[in-house]
Amino acid sequence: MLTEHGLVVVDVKPRHHVTKAEVAFVLAWTRAVVELRGWRYEVSSEPPQVELENVRFLAGYRRDWLFDPRLLDALRDADLDGMPLGAVTEILSGWPPPLVRSGLLHLLWRQVFVTDLSRPLSPGHMLRMAA
């Protein structure tokens, strides 16, 4: 892959293979060859299971046309940074709670807001504005 900082070679291996001696040997050899050329080298694996399940769940909220733009604007304009996910329905009391929750999950999918996806999503997850 070509980035603004040069070439990056990405080796993709399942997480459970990376620690095998013969695979680790090949990855180390590949790293040495790639770095001799002045390129960067990375090894990527699938995300942890919980993170993958959270992303799959949020993917159900990816379709823009299903959400009222006025609700999405209201969510973007609300001061939700540092607020628990479960408290958002109280902030936008003029909207039905199920619509607020689904709109918020859509904005999490779109990365307007971010939260810790390393544990199963819950009402206690803290929201952050994306950088």
Strand count, sense and barrel status of the largest sheet are: 3 strands, mixed
Number of strands: 5
Counting DSSP H or I runs of 4 or more residues, the number of helices is: 6
- Unreliable stretches (pLDDT < 50, length at least 5) are none
How many domain modules?
2
Structure description:
This protein has 6 helices and 5 strands, in the order E-E-H-H-E-H-H-H-H-E-E. With 131 residues, the protein is of the alpha+beta class. The strands form 2 sheets. Strands 1-2-3 form a 3-stranded mixed β-sheet, covered by helices on one side. It has helices at 15-18, 21-36, 49-59, 69-77, 88-91, 97-109; strands spanning 2-3, 6-12, 40-44, 113-114, 128-129. The protein folds into 2 domains: 2-44, no CATH class; 49-129, no CATH class. Helices cover 44% and strands 14% of the residues. It is elongated and about 60 Å long.
Short key terms for the protein model shown above:
14% strand, three-stranded mixed β-sheet, 6 helices, 2 domains, 44% helix, 5 strands, two-stranded antiparallel ribbon, 131 residues, alpha+beta, elongated
